[in-house]
Amino acid sequence: MALAPIDPRDPLGIDDLFDAEELAVRDTVRRFCAERVAPYVADWFERGEMPTVRELALELGRIGAFGMHLEGYGCAGASAVQYGLACLEFEACDSGLRSLVSVQGSLAMFAIHRFGSEEQKQEWLPRMAAGEAIGCFGLTEPDHGSDPASMRTHAKRDGTDWILDGRKMWITNGSVASVAVVWARTDEGVRGFVVPTDTPGLSTPDIHHKMSLRASVTSELVLDQVRLPAEAVLPGVVGMRGPLTCLGEARYGIVWGSLGAARTCLETALDYAATREQFGKPIAGFQLTQAKFADMAVELHKGLLLALHLGRRKDAGKLHPDQVSFGKLNNVREAIEICRTSRTILGANGISLEYPVMRHVTNLESVLTYEGTSEMHTLVIGKALTGLEAFR
């Protein structure tokens, strides 16, 4: 039997490894992005805003995107692979869109779902799943990124209440959030707090002048004598295990999402090279251009196989946090290189917002850094291989 030609969009036939439900989730998110975000996102990026974020959140809630991998409380209960495919499609549209979904579901909602009281879960998770309430996650500080255990934000008891003081930085969704999960030092160790953003003493100024993730809300959280009742604390965890567990969830989404940005850039370059002529023929017909395409396709689809392997392990309850570092380090590193190489194929047109390539390049500069820099994930893997810690 003669084999059909290879599909340049899926040269390894990886789609055959997904079941019907997984493909249905992927296609639903792909349609949503094509209809509701893709026509506008370049303009949002150029303007440095996501003007319809609250409206968009409600629509994302209606398709079950928020906290989709969580069980109960209005969440979809999707598999890890289904969630990964959704992240890939969101980031194929824009990293800022995937960040909105990821911070909501894998950081803010996940923290409450995993470590919160039943009252906290009932109060917040159904509204967050529906997109009626947006959440943010306060861990990173101006002077403490890769070393969050050195955070200065602190909480002290005042009778049965807690008083929070400190400052968090680079907070996705901050100024549009209804609730913030804030991590602070206490006499007992690091604790998480569920903080309604209308609490007196909390302000959320936006961060401007960004050259990356421009179609995303990024803010500070400034806590000045924020008084919270005793029931605001997350009761299920004490210590850095709490925020680091949440970060592991977000990193898993990035393993998939970064490949979406890479896929969009590669497909854009393929389409461009087929019609752009130099020296009398399409540039796709030149050997150096084909070498670029071959290298990009190999790395993209190797990354997808890695993401799928980690997703299957996660669904089987066998995924180790160090294995997520393998995925985050490799896939983001290769994705940004694919986007940069795609830019070279588009030449000067590659820097224009008429094409999505430079937008993805600059967005991935942030993705390369957040939820653990490449250096941190390298050292996580190094420790796993040698048994020796080299962070200090």
TrEMBL record:
Gene3D superfamilies: Acyl-CoA dehydrogenase/oxidase, N-terminal domain, Butyryl-CoA Dehydrogenase, subunit A, domain 2, Butyryl-CoA Dehydrogenase, subunit A, domain 3. The keyword Transferase does not apply. It comes from the Bacteria. Keywords: FAD, Flavoprotein, Oxidoreductase, Transit peptide. One of its GO terms (biological process) is fatty-acyl-CoA biosynthetic process. Residues 20-132 form the Acyl-CoA dehydrogenase/oxidase N-terminal domain. It comes from Yinghuangia soli. Residues 239-385 form the Acyl-CoA dehydrogenase/oxidase C-terminal domain. Its cofactor is FAD. The keyword tRNA-binding does not apply. This is Acyl-CoA dehydrogenase family protein. One of its GO terms (molecular function) is flavin adenine dinucleotide binding. The lineage of its organism: Bacteria, Bacillati, Actinomycetota, Actinomycetes, Kitasatosporales.
